[in-house]
Automatic annotation (TrEMBL):
Taxonomic lineage from the root: Eukaryota, Metazoa, Chordata, Craniata, Vertebrata
Residue span, Helicase C-terminal domain: 378-538
Skewed-composition ranges (Basic and acidic residues): 1-17, 50-63
Domain (Helicase ATP-binding) ranges: 183-367
Protein name, entry field: Probable ATP-dependent RNA helicase DDX41
GO biological process: mRNA splicing, via spliceosome
């Protein structure tokens, strides 16, 4: 009886049924491994590669097999279990990282699809053996992936008839080696590094494609007010920027005369009124040619926008970096809103430019026509020992070597003014330009010289960077430049477009011995006559110059010394040490705080 009156115990099923309302919010626990597996499946599904049922079963089976070796009853220590789980977590992290990286890389390289319509190769040209024969014939060295085929005719490059007629008027019938490989590369939408001696036709390599790209955009959707630029070209000097702007204007005018839409190109350089330059931008601009300083000023004041800019060309990039514009150029990069096609052109390729190119370009194709930093083989180089006090008198004798026009270079502004005044007193029709003169005076002097109204132009290195004077047969270096790269740029003003020229250089005891050694090596490389004063020069470690992959200095490209005694590297290190000493006491910018 007692057992009957004793309250009956409630079993587990009844208890769970009565408390079901309390467990409605219960979330089942999912182990860490299963959560990671689900996360991986989610990522794979996002990429469009979801796992099949068989793969899920296999992965599940593998997971069970792996899990059997873990747990409290396994013979594996906790330390080994921890290491095993840590390796699996790292593997999953790496997988997810590469998934994200592939998506970003695909977005960056999607610009190739956009440019496929601009450049269509002829199926007949798809012969690797033929490509190599053409490159070998024209001494073209290429590096990179997916290199487009070289094209030996402007007509095969699919340019409009107006541009072909314009090239013929200029006497340009066949493309130069840098144009044979460079123009197809740019038209295919790839980033490019172009290395070629001065006077090899680098300007046309980037100006003709930019005109084609802008023409395509204008036909598709006309530019409205204050829109643009679509293409941007940056030059180190005002004179070079003006010259490049003139080339673009020439071909745009020819296209307009043939019925094509009007293409507007703005010139933004210092020494000119900003209001006058902005008049073109207000109506919508397709292309812009600028110097770094003026462009930075316009960007900071938000007078120019690079929101739709997709094409950037850096002309004479080595000179811009040497002049201290590297930080400005990197700042300009930050104003681009979308992916851009970047082109870098240089006559020399020191280590600093190589490092800059690696950080600024995406998988570029490097096209090298001749050794970087080598002098043009079409220039006869003559080096003469002249005392400082006899230079001015001997200069008049040098002018008798060839008919005008003649270009004279000097390092200092005071020397330029003195030479100009001396030549005027001797009855020579001469003009002079340097950084101390205003822009209007410099422009008039260059125009008078180009139109052959003046016989002699005296200038500092302002005129050595890319300016094209087709009629010049003689260049005189009144003094030896402090860097061998400047010497290469100076003598490159003559011997252009296949013509032969003469370069006369005055040297004396005041010249730096390391620069003279570089000059000697440059003469030997170009198979030019080495004067006795340079033959006497010998360095103790001259036999060591050929050791390693590259001859000479790997930092500045000089052939007469190694990097251990490079004066340019030593000067840069001294400058850095000086700046560090200053920053210890005073911040030079907001980055120092």
């Amino acid at each position: 009886m007692e057992t009957e009156n004793r309250p009956r115990k409630r079993n587990y099923s009844e208890k769970s049924g009565s408390e079901g309302s309390e467990d409605d919010d219960y979330v089942p626990y999912v182990p860490v491994k299963i959560r990671k597996q689900q996360m991986l499946q989610k990522v794979m599904r996002f990429r469009g590669k979801g796992l099949t049922e068989e793969e899920q079963k296999d992965s599940g089976g593998e997971q069970k097999d792996e899990d059997e070796g873990l747990g409290p009853r396994s013979n594996v220590s906790l330390l080994d279990q921890h290491q095993h789980l840590k390796e699996k977590a790292e593997g999953l992290y790496i997988t997810v990282f590469f998934c994200i990286f592939d998506q970003i890389y695909a977005a960056l390289m999607s610009i190739r699809d956009f440019f496929k319509k601009h450049y269509k190769s002829d199926p007949k040209l798809f012969s690797a053996a033929r490509h190599e024969r053409v490159r070998k014939k024209y001494h073209i060295l290429v590096e990179g992936e997916g290199i487009p085929p070289p094209i030996k005719s402007f007509r095969e490059m699919k340019f409009p008839q107006a541009i072909l007629k314009g090239l013929k008027k200029k006497g340009i019938v066949h493309p130069t080696p840098i144009q044979i490989q460079g123009i197809p590369t740019i038209l295919s939408g790839r980033d490019m590094i172009g290395i070629a001696f001065t006077g090899s036709g680098k300007t046309l390599v980037f100006t003709l494609p930019i005109i084609m790209f802008c023409l395509e955009q204008e036909k598709r959707l006309p530019f409205c007010k204050r829109e643009g630029p679509y293409g941007l070209i940056i030059c180190p000097s005002r004179e070079l920027a003006r010259q490049t702007h003139g080339v673009i204007e020439y071909y745009c005018k020819l296209l307009e005369d043939e019925g094509a839409p009007q293409l507007r190109c703005a010139l933004c350089i210092g020494g000119m009124s900003v209001k006058e330059q902005m008049e073109v931008v207000k109506h919508g601009v397709h292309m812009m040619v600028a110097t770094p300083g003026r462009l930075m000023d316009l960007l900071n004041k938000k007078m120019v926008s690079l929101d739709i800019c997709r094409y950037l060309a850096l002309d004479e990039a080595d000179r811009m970096i040497d002049m201290g514009f590297e930080e400005d150029i990197r700042t300009i990069f930050s104003y681009f809103k979308g992916q851009r096609q970047t082109l870098l052109f240089s006559a020399t390729m020191p280590k600093k430019i190589q490092n800059f190119a690696k950080s600024a370009l995406v998988k570029p194709i490097t096209i090298n026509v001749g050794r970087a930093g080598a002098a043009s083989l079409d220039v006869i180089q003559e080096v003469e020992y002249v005392k400082e006090e006899a230079k001015m008198v001997y200069l008049l004798e040098c002018l008798q070597k060839s008919p005008p026009p003649v270009l004279i270079f000097a390092e200092k502004k005071a020397d330029v003014d003195a030479i100009h005044e001396y030549l005027l007193l001797k009855g020579v029709e001469a003009v002079a330009i340097h950084g101390g003169k205003d822009q209007e005076e410099r422009t008039k002097a260059i125009e008078a010289f180009k139109e052959e109204k003046k016989d002699v132009l005296v200038a500092t290195d302002v005129a050595s960077k890319g300016l094209d004077f087709p009629a010049i047969q003689h260049v005189v270096n009144y003094d030896m430049p402090e860097e061998i790269e400047n010497y290469v740029h100076r003598i490159g003003r003559t011997g252009r477009s296949g013509k032969t020229g003469i370069a006369t250089t005055f040297i004396n005891k005041g010249c730096d011995e390391s620069v003279l050694m570089d000059l000697k090596a440059l003469l030997v490389e170009a198979k030019q006559k080495v004067p006795p004063v340079l033959q006497v020069l010998q360095m103790g470690d001259e036999t060591m110059l050929d050791i390693g992959e590259e001859r000479g200095c790997t930092f500045c490209g000089g052939l007469g010394h190694r990097i251990t005694v490079c004066p340019k590297l030593e000067a840069m290190q001294t400058k850095q040490v000086t700046n560090i000493g200053r920053k210890d006491y005073l911040a030079s910018s907001s980055m120092d705080f």
